[in-house]
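Dear colleague,

Thank you for sharing your sequence with our group. We've completed the structure prediction you requested, and as agreed, I am returning the results in plain text so they can be pasted directly into your records. Please verify that the sequence below matches your submission; if there's any discrepancy, let me know and we will rerun it promptly.
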Amino acid sequence: MSILVDESTKLVVQGITGREGQFHTLRNKAYGTNVVAGVTPGKAGQDVDGIPVFNTVRDAVEATGANTSMVFVPPRFATDAIFESLDAGIELTIAITEGIPAHDMMRVYTHLGRGDQRLLGPNCPGAISPGKATVGIMPTDVFTPGRVGIISRSGTLTYQISKEIGDMGIGQSTVVGIGGDPIVGSSFIDVLTMFEADPGTDLVVVVGEIGGDEEERAGEFIAANMTTPVVGYIAGFQAPPGKQMGHAGAIITGSSGTAQGKKDALEALGVRVGTNPTEVAEIVADTLR
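Please find the predicted structure tokens below.
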């Protein structure tokens, strides 16, 4: 099996007529994702490579039964786009947009707490269940179908780790990018819970990065709740203390939130942690033997 995206996904793309939105929509469609609609206000009646465009998400849902949305809307409009997706009843919203202000995301996060709808991102690469469907911007050729789940705050390292374990003949059930911003819709714990319940996932790789305490809290959850084995990786062992890195969430202060500190915390809770992608792949292979 898989989680979040699969053959039952019916995707609507918010911002489909923009350059980036159109490019990645067609890549998702070419992979096999069921892209049923696009939304751009004022452009209803048009189409993108045969995909009908609607003025609102609600119109798209009523006409096509869309259950998943991908947000490719500029930052100043992205919060409203996420709210529109949620208000239209979309089950899973994946926000690719980077640069949404944190105080705007606080409003979205509070709204999400009222229901069972799910949000990935913002500032995330999306999700892929290899061989079934992809929603987002991941380079699909590095993934192969299999039984390892991956959750990540860092897109590029996710691709590298997936490629390395793939070279060992180990594929992925679903790969999930949760985004690197301080406030995101889904946490490591949210996605770990889904993988724990997925009979098609035999092991989970958690790809963290410096800053915050998401990885430490995930480690406590793993120790208390997971029967599925988990392998960890923390990006940023060479990062200088006090320097803000590429992701807004990757800020370290003093000894708190460092890669070594997170590695120590996870290992103390029983999670084996690799110090580079190759070592992670080796631990995955060893654990699955």
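Summary note from our side: The CA atoms of residues 58 and 87 lie 8 Å apart.

Kind regards,
the structure core
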